[in-house]
Amino acid sequence: MKIDNNIEGYDSLGEDHIGTSSNTPLRLDAFKLSNEEKIEIIKDDVRHIMETLGLDLTDDSLNGTPNRVAKMFVKEIFGGLDPNKKPSASTFENKYKYGEMLVEKNITVYSTCEHHLLPIVGKAHVAYISNGTVVGLSKMNRIVDYYAKRPQVQERLTIQIVKELQDVLNTQDVACVIDAKHLCVNSRGIRDIESSTVTSEFGGKFKDKTVRREFLDYIKLDTKF
Ligand SMILES: [Zn+2]
């Protein structure tokens, strides 16, 4: 397996958190191995990292870590790389003839920065205006979660969520705003615990200032139950 990662400037690119594409950069052979095979390989890799750091893997506390991390990578935090986990595209007819925007706000985002493999934690706010098709509300959460569970840059995650909903709903009128903390910024490097990153993508009618304003005003609603 040859991976060309010696391109000059890649290090600084990562440090500046610049993504290179709106599609997750995947190898052509990304799905040749089964998830179980991937876990076995990654297990050895994690063990190697830990041993290189000088840790004694015979210690009871560390013994199970390689297997635990490998399973967590493949099945949980990077599980959204697996196309089989993509939320099903079931939609419904808009029977109520509800023609205004629908906003699903404060969707929890747990993702991983692809430059440092550290957590990104935040909230996504997603909206669409139906042109005859609607989706179940939880579908929007599931789509956010699916694309979040990959090595990510926040800009790409925002775009991927919008594109997926545009496909599913058969309309351009979709928007997404994400406000998130990147632990690679908060806990290391510049170590700014207060800063968060906001990204947005506005499709179709949401490019209109008034529509966009309405969406952003809904996000600001402080819903208490
Ligand atoms: Zn990072």
UniProtKB/TrEMBL annotation:
Q: Where does Zn(2+) bind?
A: 113, 116, 184
Transmembrane regions: none
Keywords from the named record: GTP-binding, Hydrolase, Metal-binding, Nucleotide-binding, One-carbon metabolism, Zinc
User: Which family does the similarity line name?
Assistant: Belongs to the GTP cyclohydrolase I family.
What is this protein identified as?
GTP cyclohydrolase 1
Organism in which the protein naturally occurs = Litoribaculum gwangyangense
PROSITE patterns named among the record's database cross-references: GTP_CYCLOHYDROL_1_1, GTP_CYCLOHYDROL_1_2
Domain GTP cyclohydrolase I, residue spans: 42-219
The record's listing under HAMAP family reads: FolE
- What enzyme class is recorded for this protein? hydrolase
Reaction(s) catalysed (UniProt annotation): GTP + H2O = 7,8-dihydroneopterin 3'-triphosphate + formate + H(+)
Q: Which Pfam families match?
A: GTP_cyclohydroI
- Which NCBIfam families does this chain map to? folE (TIGR00063), PRK09347.1-1 (NF006824), PRK09347.1-2 (NF006825), PRK09347.1-3 (NF006826)
